[in-house]
Amino acid sequence: MGSEVPATRTPVTKEQAATFVVNGLRARLGREPSEQEAVYTMALAWVESGRGQSIYGNNPGNVSCYDNGKGWSGDFWRPPWFPEQHDPKYDYLHQRMLEGKAPRAFRAYPDQQTGWNDYLREVVRRIALLAAMNADDPAEFVRQLVETKYSIDYNESHVKTYRSIIAEIRSWGLFSSLPKASPPPAKKPSVSGLGLALGAGGAAVLLMVLLAAKKKRR
């Protein structure tokens, strides 16, 4: 690991954040990002960083140093709940840290774009999270934040928050020139799928209907 550095605040405006998001997504995806991908990744960063005003160490996604058990060779800063002597309001987080359920340190980056690129790397590598973005589904997005272990601290109560902030970001028009992702095609249930859904009795009735139709065609 690199050196410990002070937790220096590095805020951004929404216009700066939009530029970092688009540049970072292009680099990570190797293509033009969809409007949904840009809006949702900015929404996540906006929630994580107090609308861009509580970014520390150029780390908009609050990426910790020990993601999936892997070390970090760069600089890092300590959260206020880390010291043994801390403000009592951080008692809960300090205890969770001791239990291995809250970070001990966060990554610090030399500049904003580097930090946004690393945050976007964490987003893009979670395929199910990208799929939820492109489906434009805030509820599934929040669920996948937990399922893909981006953060276990989200729950259903955050869906309303994300609906609101996604709508607000869209109202700014910062990503309106980006292409819209096509919605996923509706799945047509197969005969076997219908049988499972109907249960044994329903499947038997369905089979009788299909056999009758087949005899009629002869």
Structure report:
- The chain has 2 domains: 14-172, Lysozyme (Orthogonal Bundle), CATH 1.10.530; 187-218, no CATH class.
- It is 51% helix and 2% strand.
- The protein has 8 helices and 2 strands.
- The chain is globular, with a radius of gyration of 23 Å.
Write a brief structural summary:
The protein has helices at 14-29, 35-48, 91-98, 112-124, 127-134, 138-147, 158-172, 191-217; strands at residues 76-77, 106-107.
List descriptors.
218 residues, mainly alpha, Lysozyme, 2 domains, 8 helices, 2% strand, disordered C terminus
Which helices and strands occur, and which strands form pairs?
Layout: H1 14-29, H2 35-48, E1 76-77, H3 91-98, E2 106-107, H4 112-124, H5 127-134, H6 138-147, H7 158-172, H8 191-217
Antiparallel strand pairs: 1-2
Helix pairs in contact: 1-2, 1-4, 2-7, 5-6, 6-7
Shape, please? globular
Question: Which segments are poorly predicted (pLDDT under 50) over 5 or more consecutive residues?
Answer: 189-216
Number of helices: 8
| Level-2 CATH architecture of the largest domain | Orthogonal Bundle
The CATH C-level name of the largest domain is Mainly Alpha
CATH topology of the largest domain: Lysozyme
Summing up helix and strand content along with how strands pair, one would put the structural category as: mainly alpha
